[in-house]
Structures are given as C-alpha cells and as structure tokens.
Amino acid sequence: MSLTNKITAISLLSLPGLIFPSCSKENEKNLPNIVILMTDDMGYFDLSCYGSEIQTPNIDGLAEQGMKFTDFYCAAPNCSPSRAGLLTGRTPSRTGVYDYIPPNTPMHLPEDEITIAELLKNKGYSTCHVGKWHLSEWTREDGMTDPTPDKQGFDYWFAVDNNSSPSHMDPVNFQRMGEKVGPLKGYSCQLVAEEGIKWLKKMEGKEQPFFLNVWFNEPHHKLASPPELIAKHSDLEPKEALYYANIENVDLAVGKILNVLEELQLSDNTIVMFTSDNGPWRRTSAGHFRAKKSSLYEGGIRAPGIFKWPGKITAGSVNNEPAGFIDILPTICEITEIPLPPGKHIDGTSILPLLNEEEFVRDQSLFWFFYKSSPTAVIRKGDYILTADPVENYRSKSHPIDQTDLDYLKSLKLVKFQLFNIKEDVGQDRDISELMPGKLEELKTEMLSVHKSMISEGPMLEGLISD
Questions:
Q1: Which residues are bridge partners to 367 per DSSP?
Q2: How many CA atoms within 13 Å lie on the side-chain side of 301?
Q3: Most distant CA pair in the chain: distance in Å?
Q4: Which pick of 149, 238, 260, 383 has the fewest CB atoms within 10 Å?
C-alpha cells in the first residue's frame, strides 16, 4: 500500500454513508480518552501487584481500580517488533519489523502501516507520543531519515528513537517534533512524564478526546536511579538496589500522570492501560516462567497487563484469559466505533468482552514468530501452547538484520513441535505432544496457516547488507 493509498484508506473510514458518519462534536464528547503507559524490559514479577517485593503503589492502584490480566502477552520478545504489533494489531513480521532496530539499518515501521494513533486522529482525537519510540531511526549515517511519530498519526511528540543516552540520567538525545532538545537534567521517566503532563494540561477545557502514548525507557540498560531511592534498599546488593529504585522511579512517574488526570477531572472518562514491551533482561524478574527477553518461551513474552476504565471495568477484577498487544487496536476500534483498517490482516481480537466480563471468542489464536529465537514460532489456544522450530536453528552472524537473515526467515520451515499445558506446567518443562496428538495437530494446522500468511505478507527490505 503506497502512502497515497494509505491516506485514501484512512479517509474512507470517515466518508458519510460508506461505513459510519464522521465524528461530530457531539460524538466527541462521548468518546473516552485513552492513555497507554508502557515500560521497557520490565518483568512480569517486577510489580508488587504481580508478586514482587518492589513497591509500586501507583501501578498497583490501577489494578485495584481496574482489571489485572494474569496471561497478558507482548507482540514479540524484544523491543521494536513488539511496539509495531501494539500500534498495528498485526503480528510484527507482517509489517517488516522482524527484529529490534539497531543503528544504520533500513528496517522500520513502514508509513503504509495504519496505527492506533492514525485511526483515532481520523476520529477526531488529539494524539501525543512521549518517550521511547524505536520504530524507526532518525540519525542514520547514510543521511536517510525514517518516519517519525508524526508520520504515524501523532500530532505531538517528544521522544528518543532508541534508548536514552548516556543513561536514564540527564539524557542528551531527546527530540521534540523533529528538533533536537539537547542535554536535559533529570531522569528519563520523569522527563517523559512531565512532557506528557504539559500536553495534558493543554487539553484542559477542550471537548476533544485525546490519546496519550507514554513509552518509558526504564528499566532498559543503561540504568540510572535517584540516590534517595537506591538508599531505601541498602540491604540489597548494589545492582539490585539500583534496579529496585529504577522500577520505583517509573512508578512515581506513573503516579504523576494519574494524579494530573484526577486534578483535571479527566479520569472518569479515560481508559488507562499499563504494560511492558517484552520480557525482562533480568532473569529473576521473569520468576517461574521459562527464559527471559529475546525468547518466545513465557519469560520473554508474558507481561503485566492492567486496564482501568471507571464505571466500565469492575474495580479489582482479575482476568485469566490470554490476551495481548495485538488485541489493543481492535479493542480500541470497537470502543470508539472505528472500522478495522481496510486491506490489512489484523491478528488480534477485540477484548472488550473480557473488559466487560462477557463471553469472549478469539478470531485467531495468539501467535508469535521470531527468527532468532528457539522456539522460532509459538501459538497459544486456551491452556495449550505449541512451540515450533526449523530443522536447525539459525545463528545470525550480524547483530542488525542482513540479507542472509531475511532470506533465512522467508524460507524456513517449521518441522519440530512441542506441546505444553501452560496452566499445569508454567515452566514449560513437559512436552505432552505424544499424549495429545489431536491437540498437536489442531494447533499445528493453525500455526502453519498463520505462519504461511505472515511470511507471504512480510515485505522484503531494501538496502540490507549482504553476509
């Protein structure tokens, strides 16, 4: 889909009489505001509401006032593809974001992908992104500039294209609407929260609904935490104290945003979602799940998932149904009565019935693919997880994706399978495929179908280096 076609496709969504009437001022009053809060590399067990020793009262408060998902999943086991999946509702490899985006690679989220922000903007929302982006690179050595957040539907943005540098403290690489900000004083999560708050205050008194997308850099390396928070954990090893303080600093930043929503009397009509982009680099943060970040075992893709919507979501509720990032776009579309993007295969299913505690039927089982991981593909249906690998797993010789990588992922065949009951075997230690051949074949058939569809749709990338 060309950029022209993309604009046409989004415009079609608001043509009177074609799908639904364009958003009127009266309709805007009834639309909920939407805030997405996401951390970077936080583990499932890094929040006290998920069993951690680390105290996170503000995030815990979201769970107390909303719904906590026990089986919530990222779209991928590392950064860039997971973010692509969240914004598009599509398995990331369909979009061409096959791996995380390192410096000087042509891989990025294409402009012809339709994001949550674009759909909401077309519906009349004001849109803002603050924090880490990592769906494109703005400082490539070849002088090329990949799409910035405004090209993906955000009216306003304040961001870094990857990690805050030199660390979370006093970052020097933030940009605001394409202009370098220069050295800043403070910690990344607090600076991001403050920027989001400034934007929120500009929304005060306006009837226009808003979408605020807050993607924190913490607790991704390189860590930096306030000394006063580190000092609270003098009984721990220094690295552990640094990590605990890092999570607590994010929680304080979340609290500031939530407090301002209350002060501006916006909370009652605002959906707030909290999650993390992928599994943790810190092994203990994955708890009893197998593996960690970069793996398609549970430790690499299971994440916190909390939703608050006063008057709509039952306070203190817990949901055990599998759900994840790719469900967010179709959920928002159903809530706001926006049609799904035309001409795009949406892998997710609206979880509005789950938020309403109603019967839920998934259109397509949750599916993951990451060519550098073993397992290489995973599908979950109910309590059962099927993992798959090619004959021989690939070990890339290049950190950034190169032409050899792309040729491999486009041609690999899934032939080795293992079946797990995740409710009975959270550590994924016992392959039960021989005990349940019918279930094996059921999940295998669906996995191979989705994988074939994904591979055929995933774009080739121009400008990759050859091995």
A1: 379
A2: 32
A3: 65
A4: 238
Q: Is 131 helix (H, G, I), strand (E, B) or coil?
A: strand
Which CATH number does the domain 366-457 belong to among 3.30.1120.10, 3.90.950.10, 3.30.43.10, 3.40.50.920? Answer: 3.30.1120.10
Q: Which two tokens stand for residue 363?
A: 């259109």
The pLDDT score that the predictor gives to residue 9 is 52
Pair of tokens at residue 130: 């603050």
Other C-beta atoms closer than 10 Å to the C-beta of 26 total: 8
- For the chain, where do the domains classified as CATH 3.30.1120.10 start and end? 366-457
Domain 29-355 bears CATH identifier 3.40.720.10: yes
Find the DSSP H helices in 179-237. Answer: 188-202, 227-230
Whether the link from the prior residue into 375 is cis, omega within 30° of 0, is: yes
> 113-122 burial by CB neighbour count: b if 16+ within 10 A, else e?
bbbbbbbbbb
List where CATH 3.40.720.10 sits in the chain: 29-355
Whose CA is closest to 389, among 352, 427, 355, 415? 415
> Which residue type, as a one-letter code, is found at position 336?
T
Report whether 326 contacts 87 (CB < 8 A). Answer: no
Strands of 391-432, DSSP E: 416-421
For the chain, the average pLDDT equals 93
Secondary structure element (H or E) that encloses residue 5, with its range:
helix 3-12
Residues 132, 114: Cα–Cα separation, whole Å: 19
Tell me: the pLDDT tens digits for 414-425? 999 999 999 999
Q: Strand pairing partners for 318?
A: 68
Paired with 68 in beta bridges are 306, 318
DSSP 310-335: TTTS-TTEEE-S-EEGGGHHHHHHHH
Cα gap 38→42, rounded to integer Å: 9
Q: What b/e string do you get for 401-431 counting C-beta neighbours within 10 Å, with b at 16 or more? A: bbebbbebbeebebeebbbbbbeeeeebeee
Contacts 24+ apart (CB under 8 A), 380-385: 380/73, 380/322, 380/422, 381/442, 381/443, 381/446, 382/322, 383/421, 383/422, 383/423, 383/424, 384/419, 384/420, 384/421, 384/422, 384/436, 384/439, 384/443, 385/419, 385/420, 385/421, 385/422, 385/428
Higher pLDDT, 206 or 194: 194
Q: List pLDDT tens digits, range 140-165.
A: 666 667 899 999 999 999 999 999 99
